[in-house]
Specification:
mainly beta, Neuraminidase, 5-stranded antiparallel sheet, globular
């Protein structure tokens, strides 16, 4: 745990189809809470790349069963903590391989994306109620595919106010590289995207979010950018000023939170790792929480990000195997 005041340096922006001014992120001080969420006795943290906050301020984490995968575990990977970090419940044991994406919808239902497959499990998006009852499954467990009813390494899921479901289907490599849209009952509506570097193409999908107008923000980590689409998949813009995005979260006031845990001299030179906070309306970056470590290219930072209505930011840590909470000084 530490408290540090960081001075942020301006960096160049590359923006297509949407004018965004050059940004100087403001100096911000944050207090870091590394051990605030307590696992039940006898259980340790594994890697986690995703989390979300429900309307009661409770944190939901899709954790990798004390390791970096759940295929050989009997532990329940979907875990709820209260705002003080007290363990409340866990469910989903024996169902998943590689926990990756989680989303809490407006009715309190929990959606998760399993980003690989093995032994008849994985490559699915599953909807639970808050007690752990399965309400809907998208995809075919253990089957990787490119059809309208299969996924290949789905990385994240989000739902719209009308119930429409958006899935970022792919996680780099030989997986898919598309966004899938479904109706609230799971009926396929449409898909868009393919592998590549151009507008509407993806290098490695890693997160997805919606703003208050229904625009779809996709963390295209492989291309060091966020891509923005309308709800029908029409390309609007790309933003590179938020770094190499792994996790992306937009709150009710259209504040945009993006975590970058992978920028370095090779993959995204000149950009420092960390969490960037700004506006989903105009793309202006307002603050930056740097990663932890002695060298910028090796700093640790979480992959997933979420925020509560009291201003706290949460980061899901893969390498450090924890959940970090950041609060204003």
């Amino acid at each position: 745990m530490r408290s540090t005041r960081h001075i942020i340096v301006a960096f160049s922006l590359v923006v297509v189809s949407l004018a965004v001014p050059l940004v100087v992120a403001q100096d911000a001080a944050w207090r870091t809470l590394s051990d605030w969420a307590k696992m039940p006795e006898g259980r340790i943290w594994g890697s986690t790349s995703t989390l979300d906050v429900d309307r009661g301020g409770n944190l939901w984490v899709f954790e990798r069963c004390g390791e970096n995968a759940c295929d050989a575990s009997t532990l329940a990977p979907i875990i709820q903590f209260d705002p003080a970090g007290k363990f409340l419940r866990a469910f989903g044991a024996g169902m998943f391989v590689f926990p990756h994406g989680i989303h809490v919808d407006r009715d309190g239902n929990i959606w998760v994306a399993d980003a690989t497959g093995k032994d008849g499990k994985g490559h699915v998006v599953v909807k639970f109620n808050r007690e752990g009852k399965v309400l809907l499954t998208l995809g075919k467990p253990g089957v990787a595919g490119e059809t309208t009813d299969t996924f290949n390494r789905p990385s994240a899921v989000i739902t719209a106010p009308n119930g429409d479901i958006f899935v970022s289907d792919g996680h780099g490599g030989n997986s898919n590289a598309r966004v899938m849209k479904f109706a609230k009952d799971g009926k396929f509506i449409k898909t868009w995207g393919t592998k590549g570097t151009g507008p509407g193409e993806f290098g490695e999908l890693h997160g997805i979010a919606l703003d208050s107008t229904g625009r779809v923000f996709v963390a295209d980590r492989g291309n060091n950018r966020i891509q923005i689409f309308d709800a029908d998949g029409k390309y609007i813009a790309e933003w590179k000023q938020f770094g190499r995005p792994s996790g992306i979260y937009i709150d009710a006031s259209d504040t945009l939170y993006v975590t970058d845990h992978g920028s370095d001299a090779k993959r995204n030179p000149g950009v420092r790792r960390g969490i960037r906070v700004g506006s989903a309306k105009d793309g202006v970056v307002k603050s930056h929480i740097p990663g932890v470590g002695p060298e910028p290219d090796k700093e640790n930072m979480g992959e997933g990000v979420a925020a509560d209505d009291k201003g706290a930011i949460y980061a899901a840590e893969v390498a450090r195997k924890s959940v970090t909470k950041y609060v204003r000084q």
